[in-house]
Amino acid sequence: MTDFSVLATDMHSHLLPGLDDGVPTLDEALEVIESLGRLGYRRVVTTPHVMWERYRNTSEIILENVRIVQEAVQKAGIPVEVYAAAEYMLDDHFAELLKQDDLLPLDSERHVLVEMSFLHPPLALQQYLFDLQKLGYKPVLAHPERYPFYHLKLDEYQGLKDAGCSFQVNILSITGHYGPDVQQSAQLLLRHGMVDYLGTDAHRIRHAHTLHAALRSGHLEKTLAKHRFANAELATVRNEQ
């Protein structure tokens, strides 16, 4: 296993310049996307934060900016398809977006990437998950292994699964990039077959370099060979306003 071609699609990254804490410039966005192509990815669904206290991104802003990146990628001849969705913080603003049915899903099957505070889960978590599914969306929780209040708590993870939530684990969590507690929780989820998707969560070119190094070290070979992930099954997203 020499790359991530078995995954085909990366569905968590921050590669729209200047929209959040991801890449600051178009040049770095292109550098990361080209590097992801060398890692074996053929499609990237980049997911800027929608976090109203910090990043007031709307669907219109995201779609406008992804078109700029798409045109630059095509002009540079990078053989990677680029689309955009969003990583939604489960906060009060998210409740308003749900009322308006104004979400950018990961794909045409209406998978939606969501996240929560690293301090505590939202009080309305179960209601958010229920309301998403009532509207026909399929919630995907970003990096469940990174929330300290869930570390190694299999029953808590199972409760989220029972509530209809899929899990996306960061690839670098498996390598220990975020520390041993996160790594152990990622391994727990893998052992119990709870990981539906792997994501790079790439914010900068250094993350792509770290992914290259992890492949060379062989740390990810067993994971990619042993477990089946649904990245390649994500239906084509339609970035239409």
How would you explain this protein's 3D organization?
This protein has 241 residues and is α/β, with parallel strands linked by helices. The protein has a single domain, classed as TIM Barrel (Alpha-Beta Barrel). It has helices at 26-38, 59-76, 92-100, 125-134, 154-162, 171-174, 180-191, 205-217, 221-226; strands at 9-10, 43-46, 49-50, 81-84, 87-89, 111-115, 138-142, 166-170, 197-199. The strands form 2 sheets. The protein has a 6-stranded parallel β-sheet. α1 packs across α2. The longest helix is centred in the first third of the chain and has 18 residues, at 59-76. The model has no long low-confidence stretch (mean pLDDT 95).
Please specify the SSE layout and strand pairing.
Blueprint lengths: L8 E2 L15 H13 L4 E4 L2 E2 L8 H18 L4 E4 L2 E3 L2 H9 L10 E5 L9 H10 L3 E5 L11 H9 L3 E5 H4 L5 H12 L5 E3 L5 H13 L3 H6 L15
Parallel strand pairs: 1-2, 2-4, 3-5, 5-6, 6-7, 7-8, 8-9
